[in-house]
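Tokens for chain A. Residues wanted.
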């Protein structure tokens, strides 16, 4: 009986401690604080277990040919390179501020995953990280194109690199915008009937 009380008391103490930690604002939610080793290992473990349980056991139904890669590249350029970068292509500013960071997809961690696992991750996303779910906005066929492109990623051509570089440079276009009060004014609209004016 005393043992049971001890256990219950212990659990309560931990719960109160955790609540106080959160309620006093001591838990820092800033993305600038790198995750600890244990947090990282636990999150990777949970991700791998979840992927293994949910991913379909399927091979990519598309063949790895230039046509498929072209489709995959278009989606990767639009949706992925900003966070993940690519060989010879740095991620954009969004990717550089992520916590947890978006991994280099040419590494073994990713390339060792099965087609079905990659499909599931891209389709469903990874909760509580920056990794979005693309299933709600893309057709099954398009996601398989992306999976094929992920396999091709370690060996992309210089031409493909140039195309991907263009995407992050366009996203950072604001750096070249004139300073506030500069000469270029954004276009503006008026309600019908507004008399003409200079600026
Ligand atoms: C807004 C940023 C962001 C975008 C956009 C994004 N990702 Fe991610 N992605 C992440 C982050 C962050 C992780 C790591 C999550 C973690 O640590 O578990 C991740 C993880 C992944 C993984 C798992 C890596 C591994 O093997 O553990 C794959 C695969 C992946 N992303 C593919 C893609 C593809 C393909 C696209 C585009 C269709 C994409 N991502 C777009 C942020 C992003």
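Reply:
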């Amino acid at each position: 009986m005393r043992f049971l009380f001890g256990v219950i008391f212990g659990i309560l103490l931990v719960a109160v401690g955790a609540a106080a930690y959160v309620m006093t604002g001591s838990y820092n939610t800033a993305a600038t604080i790198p995750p600890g080793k244990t947090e990282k290992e636990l999150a990777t473990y949970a991700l791998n277990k979840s992927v293994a349980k949910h991913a379909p056991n399927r091979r990519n139904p598309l063949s790895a040919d230039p046509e498929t890669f072209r489709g995959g590249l278009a989606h990767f350029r639009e949706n992925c390179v900003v966070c993940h970068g690519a060989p010879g292509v740095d991620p954009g500013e969004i990717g550089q501020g992520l916590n947890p960071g978006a991994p280099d997809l040419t590494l073994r961690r990713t390339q060792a995953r099965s087609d079905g696992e990659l499909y599931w991750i891209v389709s469903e996303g990874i909760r509580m990280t920056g990794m979005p779910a693309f299933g709600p906005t893309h057709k099954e066929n398009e996601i398989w194109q992306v999976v094929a492109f992920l396999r091709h990623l370690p060996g992309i051509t210089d031409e493909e690199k140039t195309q991907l570089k263009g995407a992050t440079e366009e996203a950072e276009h604001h750096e070249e915008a004139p300073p506030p009060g500069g000469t270029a004014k954004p276009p503006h609209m008026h309600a019908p009937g507004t008399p003409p004016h200079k600026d």
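The pocket of heme C is lined by residues 43, 47, 75, 79-80, 82-84, 94, 98, 100, 102-103, 105, 109-110, 113, 118, 121-122, 126, 129-132, 134, 146, 150 (CB under 6 Å). The domain at 56-172 is CATH 1.10.760.10 (Cytochrome Bc1 Complex; Chain D, domain 2).
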